[in-house]
Amino acid sequence: MADAPVLEVDRSLVGTLELEGPDVPYVNLEDAPAIPTHLNVGAVEYTYDRSFPIKGHSAVLPQAIREYEAAGKRALIAERHERYLVYLA
What is the rounded (10 degree) CA torsion for 52, 54, 59, 62? Predict the structure, then answer.
């Protein structure tokens, strides 16, 4: 996907989203001009997978993150327009 939108994210902008269970790297994308399909953080490329509404996420997001981790994938959460976007590496 050479033409897919990619956003380079400075590592200093990555924080942590504390969930019931796993803590996940987090970045705020409210000021991004568009929703990228790929996020590059250093040498790691994350690809968009799905999103969750911020309100009500606690019922399903932590379980989804545990399932990704069990499958050997690393997740990064981005916040934009009242949604958590899940990117996977």
Answer: 70
Mean pLDDT computed over every residue of the chain: 91
The helix (H) or strand (E) run that includes residue 40 is: strand 38-41
Helix (H) or strand (E) run with residue 68 in it? helix 61-70
> Which amino acid belongs to residue 89?
A
Buried b (16+ CB within 10 A) or exposed e, 45-58: ebbbeebbeeeebe
Q: Collapsing DSSP states into helix, strand and coil, what is residue 6?
A: strand
The token pair that represents 68 in the structure block: 């990704």
| Residue with token string 């899940």 | 86
Question: Residue 63 corresponds to which tokens in the numbers above?
Answer: 């379980």
What's the predicted TM-score (pTM) here?
Answer: 0.90
Containing 82, the helix (H) or strand (E) segment is: none
The per-residue pLDDT for 21 is 79
